[in-house]
Design brief:
Number of strands: 0
CATH superfamily: Ferritin, core subunit, four-helix bundle
Bound molecules: hydroxy diiron-OXO moiety
Helix content: over 70%
Radius of gyration: 17 Å
Structural class: mainly alpha
CATH class: Mainly Alpha
Distance between the termini: 37 Å
Number of domains: 1
Length: 164
């Protein structure tokens, strides 16, 4: 049984994961129309994973006898200046999500809700992995450079990072 406070925060986080999925799907469209199909595929997969994170939370809330509630989801931005601008925004967003997960975990611990603390450990590990993966993308962009040819090789490198 979850406290109302924890349920409210879990529901807020369900929406954030939904937003993350929409954000990355929208970013994939920007990449597609620029001919960056490797980056687009990387972001589409990321969008699917975020949807999975949302469903995992949704299931946890109803499995513990509470009602998951979907709220309004803001529209994501549609324009980016460059591929580095886009991936810097992915990185900033992931850092934001990490802070939110940490706050959620701390709030659950304060409520003495050890089941939710335990459940959220998976998200802590996932955030670590995602921040690292996006940092790797930013490293590749920095090393290769964003000349026209550079962007071609960045796209190939990012496409090659897709997890099978
Ligand atoms: Fe949902 O994994 Fe990052 O944001």
């Amino acid at each position: 049984m979850l406290s109302q406070k924890v349920v409210g925060k879990l529901n807020e986080h369900i929406n954030l994961e939904f937003y993350s999925s929409n954000l990355y799907l929208q970013m994939s469209a920007w990449c597609e129309i620029k001919g960056l199909d490797g980056c687009a595929a990387f972001l589409r997969l990321q969008a699917r994973e975020e949807l999975g994170h949302m469903h995992k939370l949704f299931k946890y809330v109803y499995e513990t006898g509470s009602l998951p509630v979907l709220g309004d989801i803001a529209a994501p931005p549609v324009e980016y200046v460059s591929i580095s601008d886009l991936f810097n925004k992915v990185y900033d967003h992931e850092c934001h999500i990490t802070r939110e997960i940490n706050a959620l975990l701390n709030a659950s611990a304060k409520e003495g809700d050890l089941s939710t603390v335990n459940f959220l450990q998976w998200y802590v590990a996932e955030q670590h992995e995602e921040e690292h993966r996006i940092q790797q993308v930013l490293d590749k962009i920095r090393i290769i450079g964003e000349s026209d040819t550079g962007v071609f090789f960045i796209d190939r490198a990012v496409g090659g990072m897709i997890r099978k």
